[in-house]
Every structure is written in C-alpha cells, then in structure tokens.
Amino acid sequence: MVEQIVFILVSLFTLITAVVVVTNRNLFHAALALMASFLGVAGLYVLLDAGFLAAAQLLVYIGAISILIIFAIMLTRRLMHALESPFNSQWGLGAFTAVVAFAVMAGVIAQFWPVTPDSVTPLASRPEVSASILRGSVAELGRALVSSDAYVIPFEIASVLLLAALIGAIVVAWPKAEDE
Amino acid sequence: MVPLSWYLLVAALLFCIGLYGVMVRRNAVAILMAVELMLNAVNINLVAFWRYLSPERPVGLAWAIFVLTVAAAEAAVGLALLISVYRNRGSVVAEELDLLKN
Amino acid sequence: MEFQVPSLNLLIVLPVLIVTGWGMLLMLAEFFIPEEKKSWAPWLTMLGLVLALIQTIGLWGYNGGTFTPKGGAPMVVVDNFATFLNIIFLLTGILTVLISIHYLRRTGLDRPEYYMLLLFSVSGMMLMGMANDLILVFLALELLSIPLYILSGFAWPRPDSEESAMKYFLLGAFSSSIFVFGIALTYGSTGTTSLPLVLERISDAGMLGLVATAMLIVGFAFKVAAAPFHMWTPDVYEGAPTTVTAFMSVGAKVGGFAAMLRVFVAALPQLGEAWVPAVAGVATLTLIVGNVVAIVQPNIKRMLAYSSIAHAGYIMIAVAASVNSPDGVSAALFYMLAYLFTNLGAFAVVIALEHKQGEGVMLDDYKGLGKRRPWLALAMAYFMLSLTGVPPTGGFSGKFYVFRAAIEADLLWLAIVGVITSVISGYYYLRVVYLMYMYDGEGEVVANRALVWTVGLTALATLVLGLLPGPWFDMARDAALQTVQMVAGG
Questions:
Q1: Long-range contacts of A93-99 (CB under 8 A, 24+ apart)
Q2: ipTM of this model?
Q3: A172 in contact with chain C, both atoms CB, cutoff 8 A
Q4: Strand partners, C299
Q5: In what helix (H) or strand (E) does residue C78 lie, and over which residues does it extend?
C-alpha cells in the first residue's frame, strides 16, 4: 500500500513536470521542469529495483543532458523570452494525436496486463527475486556488455555512435575561421 | 504491490506528453526537450519489462543503457547544430522552423 | 593464452569493421599529414571502401551469423540479403566520394571530417542490412543518421543548410524515439528483441504487437521519406550539399528499406494481414504526393527530392508484396540497385551544373545543355527516362519486377496506382529533357574527370540493368531466398 502511494506521488511529480516542460513559455523554466521530470523518472527506477540505472539517469540526464540544454538556452538568450506564442498553429492536431495515441496504448495495455493492483495473473504481479540476484544484476549487466556471447556488438556500435556524434558536434561548433 | 500496467500507463502518458510537445512547440530546444521526454518513457518501459518479465537476464537494462547513450549523442549533436544556427543568423531562427510544413 | 570465442566470427563482419576502422584511421591520419597534402582524404576513403567491397563480394553465398547471446539467435547475420545490400551501400559510398572530390574543393567545403562522417554513415547502413536484433537496428539507424544530420549542415556558410540540418535532426530524433518505443513494446510483448525469436512469439502478442508494428512502420517511413512523414525531405535535400543529397537519397533510403524488409518479412510475416494494408496505403499516398508535387518544383534538387519520395513509394509496393509473393523482396532489391545507379548518375549531372554552391540548380539552367554538352545531356536524358521507367533502362526493369510482384501478391490495384503515377512522373522528368534540347541557354559546366567517370559508369550500369536484367534479377532472387528460408527455418 505504501509502495502504491509512493508510486502515485512519484508518477504525478514526473508527469506534471513533464506537462510544464511542453507548455511553459519560458524556456529556462521548462528546462528546470525537465530536470525535475528526469528526477522523477530516476525515482521510478528506484521503485523498480534498478538502482544502477537511477544513478546513470542522474549522471547522464540531469548531470549532462539537462546542463547542456540549459547552456544552449543561455547561449541563445533571445530564445528565452519569446514574444509571440511559443506554439505553432497545430496545437489542435497535436493534442488530438497525443490523446488518440494514449487512448490506444492505454486500451491495449489494460487488455494485456490487468490494471487492478491485486490481480494474481503472473504477468501483472512483480516476480519475487532474491536481493542477491538484484544486487548481482549490475555485475551481470557489466559482463553482458563486454561478452561476445552477449551484447558486445551493440555496445561497440554505441561507442562508434558516440565517436561519430563527438566528431560531428566538433565539426558543427568549430569556428570556420579559415573560410572567412 | 504496483502492477506492471501502472508503470506502462505512466510511460505511455509521458510518451504522449512528449509527442504533444514535439508537435506543437516552435522552438528547437523545446522540441528537443520533448524528444528527451519520449526517450525517458521508452526507458521506463524497458526497465519495467525487465523487472516484471525477466529480472534474471539484464536485457531490458542493457537496452535502457543504449537508449541513454543515443539520447546523449543526439543531445550533443542537436545542441551543437542549434548554437551554430544561432551564431550564423544571430537571431531566433529556431522559432521559425515550422517542422510540419514543406 | 587461450581464446574461447566459439560464437564469434569476426571474418564475416570484416567489411563493417574495415569501414568503421577506416573512419578512425582517417581521424588519426589527419594529425600526421601536412596541410598542403590534404587531398589524400578522398582517395584514402575510396581505398577503404574498395577493400570492404572486395571483402563483401567474397562473402557472397555465405550464410551465417555471429555474436550470439546465450540461448538466443545471432545478433548479426551475413546472408546474401545482407551481402547484396552491402554491395549497394559500398557502391553508394564509392560513387559519392567520386562526385564529392571536386565539388567540395570548388565550394570550399573540403574538410577530412566529411569523409570520416561518410564512412561512419556507410557502416551504419551496412549494419541495417545485417542486424538481426531490433536494438541493433535502432543503433544502426542512429549510426546512419547522426553523421547525416551533420553532413546535411555542411554547406557552410549557407544558412539554409544548417537550418535544414536542424529540421532533419529534430524530425529524425522524433521518429527514432517513436521507433524505439515500438521496440520496447515488442520486447514487452514477446520478451525478446531478437528477430527469429520475435517471429516465434509475435502471434501471442495480440494487440500490443500491432501497436509496436505500427510504431516501427512510422519510424521506417520517416527514414525512407514516405508520405505522410516526408515533410523534411524537400528542405533537407535542397539545403544539404548536393553530394550529401545524392548520398542520402540512395543510402539512407536503401538503409531504411534494408531493415524494414528484414524486420517485416523475417520477423513479422504473421502480422502481414495487419501491416500489408498499412504499407500499401502509405505506398499509395507516397506515390501520389511525390509525383504530383514534383511537377511544380522549379529547383532540380527539390524536384529530385519529391522524385525520391515517389521512388520510396515504388519500393514500398514491393515491401507490401513481399509476404504473399516470393519475388517481392527480390523485386525491392533489384529496384534499389537500379535506383542507386540512376539516381546517383542524375545527381552527378546536377553537380556538374552547380558551378558555385547553390547556383545552377534551377531547371532553367538546363536549357541548351544538349548543345553545350551533348554527352552530358544525353546521359541526363537517359537517367530521366530511367527514373520515369521507359525501356530499355534499369528503372523500367525495376518497375516491371515490382509491379509483377504486386500482381502476384493480389495487389493489382497497387500496381495500377504505380503505373498511373509513373505516367504522371513522365511529365516532370521529360520536361528536363525538353528544356535541354529545345531551348538555348548559357551557363558554366564543371565536369572534371572523376565526375565524367561517375556519369559514364552509372549510365552504363543503368543500361546493362535495362538490357540484361535477367542475371541481376536472379542474383537478387538468390539474395531474397535466404531471407525466406530463414523464415521457414525459424
């Protein structure tokens, strides 16, 4: 019961801040709300026994991506206070698409996994796992990422991807002095 | 006990909030933030599926890490492009990017 | 020391390793080569791509996989399907380097990073065809796209280049987040993302599998520029440096279709009843939008952008036919091979006429080309006929096989839509020919040797595919059979 209440609070926090992100006119406030929303998602990971991912979420999303976004907002200051409406003419279409998409997904999820908390279907209730397995899952994950009989190939592709993004970002941001 | 579907509903809702944000915002940074929300929704799904369906194999966790990596790479490239566009134009070009028009 | 790597066979992924490794090598080499000798970069890139191509051709006939997780299926497979597509990607890369060398120098964009990013993007494309796991498809898609976002903003200092790159990036990131949500739902409904295992379990996934499939279709449709997800295409194709436009009009599109065919035909055939009508609908809309809007474009890059949207529609006809017709996949493969040569050839001519960045790309600049440069004009006319689908061209053979596969798959109406829109497309393609021969005009044409070679080779290849399509189609059939057998074998 306590877990349910905590879950509802964390989820509400995440979702409300997310709504602020997409509706607030002031970009800086939206970015702060984004950080809060990331924090809420980290809370959900903790509730899901994925402590490592929660830490990664804090480091990468809040520590790196949000800060990068705030930097970008600061560097392009005039973007911060938009005089005209921050929304384009398609808000009706956008709202309609979002609502329909959610209705479809919610309907399918509810059909697939029961929504009531006390149902005993195997798919709905969380399997009991000993604490040692959960603690070991981080070590397991680490091994899996570098084992050739696990996920080393996506891991390597991800690293090439990061390298390409790094080169790309430098190419874009480098002053093109020699061309001037 | 919190059922799996609750997590999935939260993820679906977060995804749709992001979807709405991408479709209605005019500012490039705001759109990027909405995309990040969508990727977070993906990760909630992956972690929830991992915990409820196969906690003994870290597949969902590994996939979540990859999505995180891609999000970081995308953010780096996107913000570099944004700053470059701003420097080139010296104005709020990003606001005039009407994404859904030809 | 003892190595125990039974599941690992690096030899079969060597082409991809060469291409990525070559990209890193270029990066290091940049430090050691003095400024005045910077012209090495394209030739070094070419060497890497040719090495990878030789290695790839050597793998023809091989059928196997590597990087197998415990108790799962290989994450990377090399079969004729992947090899055929890898040949297309490597040829695209080689031809792009050929058309880039002189263009980049005269527009002041010549920087070694261009070729590094090109190589990374090619390796992403190759992985699209080889990926046997949805998460790998996602990572390959990103590896293909992220360098392309940068490359399309490369035409400094034209502001519209970076703006279009921004737009491409935002829509690309948006579509890939939809795509990866579809992957997460597939994982949830089947407990796996490995394609052969998805195939076994997807029939139990019910509605959730359908929602996931719909999201995957949206993601692919963005990548291959199919309507109604094509909005980014004209602006990006116009804003990007023309060589990059040529590269992504072939590479990114074929890459998207490579993964789409693998995922839908090898993993989701049981959901065919649901996705075939969806793909057929998208194909119809794409054909109509692409071909009709192309008519009013005064800029040749925009015209070719809409033309490439339309061609995505024709390939989608083959995708829709691939479940119920044995020749669907091979028709798609053959079509993409013909499209590679025709489209890159046409873009090579466009580059020859673009003397300065962004100048000489209007249709009016083609007036009188027939008198000024008879051979170049002849080649351009031939490419336009091939894009329309007039025999004897590769484009005609491709359309013939695609429509035949559609009829075999009981999609006669789709084939009729294809024929009608092809007739419409004749209007804007043949207008280029008309302008070239019926008017007088002046303008600089910069055709250096590499460019002339490219035009000649692509025209020759288009002609061969038009006159003697049989052996090439048999090759495509060999490539497709592997996919179907894999389905049967589970």
A1: A93/B23, A94/B19, A94/B20, A94/B22, A94/B23, A94/B24, A95/B20, A95/B24, A97/B19, A97/B20, A97/B23, A98/B16, A98/B17, A98/B19, A98/B20, A98/B23, A99/B16
A2: 0.93
A3: yes
A4: C362
A5: strand C76-78
Range of the domain at C479: 10-489
- Pair B7, A109: CB distance under 8 Å: no
Phi and psi at residue C133, to the nearest 5°: -145, 140
Q: Among all residues of chain A, which has the CA nearest to that of C165?
A: A172
Please provide the average confidence, as pLDDT, over all residues in chain B.
Answer: 85
CA C293 from centroid of its chain's CA atoms: 21
pLDDT surpasses 90 at C22: yes
pLDDT for the residue numbered C401? 95
Residue type present at position C447: A
Task: Mean pLDDT check: name the lowest of B35-44, B81-90, C333-342.
Answer: B81-90
Shortest CA gap B1–chain C (Å): 19
Number of domains in chain C: 1
Please check whether residues A4 and A74 belong to one and the same domain: yes
- C76 by DSSP, 3-state: which? strand
User: Does the beta-carbon distance from A11 to B2 stay under 8 Å?
Assistant: no
A14/A73 same-domain check: yes
Which letter does DSSP use for residue A81 in this model?
S
Q: Rounded distance, CA C55 to CA C53, Å? A: 5
**Do residues A15 and A76 share a domain?**
yes
Q: What's the CATH number where A24 sits?
A: 1.20.120.1200
pLDDT tens digits, residue range A20-57? 999 988 888 999 999 999 999 999 999 999 989 999 99
Distance from C-alpha of A154 to C-alpha of B64, rounded to nearest angstrom: 12
A122-130 own/partner pairs: CB under 8 Å, 24+ apart: A123/B4, A123/B52, A123/B53, A124/B3, A124/B4, A124/B5, A125/B1, A125/B3, A126/B1, A126/B2, A126/B4, A126/B51, A126/B52, A127/B52, A127/B55, A129/A49, A129/B55, A129/B56
Q: Where are the domains of chain B?
A: 26-96
Q: Can you tell me which residue has the tokens 């261009």?
A: C114
CB-CB contact of C363 with C298 (8 Å): yes
Q: Which residue has the tokens 């941001």?
A: A173
- CA gap C114, B31 in Å, rounded: 27
Give, for A100, the enclosing helix (H) or strand (E): helix A91-112
Evaluate if residue C6 carries a pLDDT over 70: no
Structural domain total, chain A:
2
- C123 in contact with chain A, both atoms CB, cutoff 8 A: yes
Neighbours of C47 (CB within 10 A): 12
Contact C355, C103 (CB under 8 A): no
pTM exceeds 0.95 for this model: no
Portion 128-167 of A in contact with B at CB < 8 A:
129, 133-134, 137, 140-141, 144-145, 151, 154-155, 158, 161-162, 164-166
Mean pLDDT computed over every residue of chain C: 89
Where is the domain boundary, A27, A56, A83? A83
CA geometry: angle C184, A21, B13, nearest 5 deg: 35
Q: Is residue A78 part of a domain?
A: yes
- φ, ψ at C19 (rounded to 5°): -65, -45
The pLDDT, as a whole number, for residue B56 is: 82
CA-to-CA distance for A144 and A147, rounded, in angstroms? 5
Domain span including residue A17: 1-83
Query: Quick one: pLDDT band at residue C482, thresholds 50, 70, 90?
Result: low
Q: Are residues A75 and A133 in the same domain?
A: no
In chain B, residues 42-61 whose CB comes closer than 8 Å to chain A: 43-44, 47-48, 50-53, 55-58, 61
